[in-house]
Amino acid sequence: MSIRRVQQHINQGFTLVETLVAITILLLVIVGPMTAAQRGIQQSYFSNEQIIATFLAQEAVEGMRVFRDGSALDLLDSSAPAGLESTDWLYLGGTNSIDSRCVGSQTCSFDKTATLPYQAFEQCVDEECEVVIDVNTGEYIQGGTGSGTGFNRTVTIFNDGNDNIRVVSKVTWDSSVFGGEREVVVQSWIYDQYQRYE
Questions:
Q1: Is residue 20 part of a domain?
Q2: How many CA atoms lie within 13 A of 52 on its CB side?
Q3: Which range marks the domain in which residue 132 is found?
Q4: So what's the pLDDT on residue 187?
Q5: Would the pLDDT of 96 be above 90?
Q6: Number of domain units in the chain
Q7: Is 6 contained in some domain?
Q8: Is residue 130 part of a domain?
Q9: Do 155 and 27 touch, CB atoms closer than 8 A?
Q10: Is residue 45 one of the residues assigned to a domain?
């Protein structure tokens, strides 16, 4: 090809087809990374929701353990009621015991700010099970007033009759990222490990 022909071709510019192909390639180069970045951000938000839900579920299980351990320590106190055994922790509070409120199909909320340990687990129905953020402390709480989080936590216990219980803590929420209800379930067995010390 002569230099003159090349010069004429350059002066003519791009054809419409060449321009459309160039724009298409440019769009593919831009849209691909933007889509990947958007998905990464969505996954990050969803992971944040899952982490919060997991911590909330675990907190209720740990609350039950703290109650069991605190009740066992109360036995060492000279002012403890006569005849109280470490196996009685589940039934403290009489007719309002955790055993009567949170067993089987009944669900409870967990309020870590309760005055008496057995009052930390109160029976709840749907709306009452919502977890809120305390506006003063910034903590996630249940059983108080605050800003809604969209998370609902329920605690259910299953007693095998030998004072060994299975605690199931479930947190549900409507995912702001993927839509639809999501849930995290944490369950643990809590044994009466203090019987041998009585």
A1: yes
A2: 21
A3: 11-197
A4: 92
A5: no
A6: 1
A7: no
A8: yes
A9: no
A10: yes
What is the token pair recorded at 33? 């990374």
Judge residue 28's burial from the number of C-beta atoms within 10 Å of its C-beta, 0-12 exposed, 13-18 middle, 19 or more buried: exposed
Amino acid identity of residue 156, one-letter, is: T
**Taking 60 as the threshold, does the pLDDT of residue 173 lie above it?**
yes
pTM of the model: 0.73
CA-based nearest residue to 71, from 58, 60, 87, 82: 87
For the chain, the average pLDDT equals 77
